[in-house]
């Protein structure tokens, strides 16, 4: 028998991802010499700094989930040599652990995948964990020591973070922007995964594409010229691509974009101080054949800024929680999230992050339809996670729109 200790119940913003056993993973592709023992030690230190991730989830008699720790040690880093599949013991199981690390090595290259339970971490939180992991590894390679260890408390849910900062629930949720499109159209049949409910987390299929380094630089220059961030330009390209592929030009497209609140709150929240420190930006894209990439991007940016200035986005999660199911009576929504610059993690000399891949793993038959983007090695990556054969077409269309708009800025 091992003694157990309950840390806290999951908040409404977190509960859904326990019900669907959802893990998010980010894989970084590395070139250069990697010390396997040092990485395993750095991972052990990560679990010492954040002991909550060595715990697991348990469902109580009331149906709610709780974060629980026990006296069992975490199993440590998983390893695979070459192109072999994951071994049978490499299972994502929220009843066992909430964080795992997989290292795959082959011919001077390495793939490092961090799996984190989605109830306890959004993409920015995962980035914070990755930064801590590589900081410890880099320090160990440079000095032979991992540095001081300061144990961190379990991250708070966004509900607690907002309450501590006096952010209160307003009358508007942001979803009110979708009211003109609700039950207003004869909609095509809903997309379905066509699969039975899995009993354990399985990977959501994804299509991926990228711009070259020169094309990415040109996109940044184009954005500066037009006073637009890359995020708004990619959002506009995604919506234009979806509008073309759907072949329902008279139906607007609801757009949802998780917004990182950490730097928008006062005092700011640390990267790992909150599980899902997110607000949700809502936008209804009414696209016509005359809509341009820059015009749509400016409207998205202006709408986002208005809702931020009025505090709508900051309190949006007090109205609803993130989930996969579509809203009844509404056209299929586009969800888009920006991972950021993956290459920003510290690495020792001779080791470089050259690519990345993100994945969702969940035990649910509900359709996931999420776009993500990020930058690695100076190249913009776009991903489409969905059970849909047309996802490759959407990626090709998005990248074509971005290339065409920035052609004059390319060398």
From TrEMBL:
Gene3D superfamilies associated with the record: Chloramphenicol acetyltransferase-like domain, Nonribosomal peptide synthetase, condensation domain
Alphabetically ordered keywords of this record: Acyltransferase, Lipid biosynthesis, Lipid metabolism, Transferase
EC class: transferase
Keyword Acyltransferase: yes
Location of the Phthiocerol/phthiodiolone dimycocerosyl transferase C-terminal domain: 201-385
Name listed for the protein in its UniProt record: Phthiocerol/phthiodiolone dimycocerosyl transferase
Domain of life: Bacteria
Region (Disordered), start-end ranges: 189-208
Reactions accelerated catalytically: 2 a mycocerosyl-[mycocerosic acid synthase] + a phthiocerol = a dimycocerosyl phthiocerol + 2 holo-[mycocerosic acid synthase]; 2 a mycocerosyl-[mycocerosic acid synthase] + a phthiodiolone = a dimycocerosyl phthiodiolone + 2 holo-[mycocerosic acid synthase]; 2 a mycocerosyl-[mycocerosic acid synthase] + a phenolphthiocerol = a dimycocerosyl phenolphthiocerol + 2 holo-[mycocerosic acid synthase]
Cross-referenced InterPro entries: CAT-like_dom_sf, PapA_C
Positions in coiled-coil regions: none
EC number: 2.3.1.282
An MF annotation (GO) of this entry: acyltransferase activity
Family the UniProt entry places it in: Belongs to the acyltransferase PapA5 family.
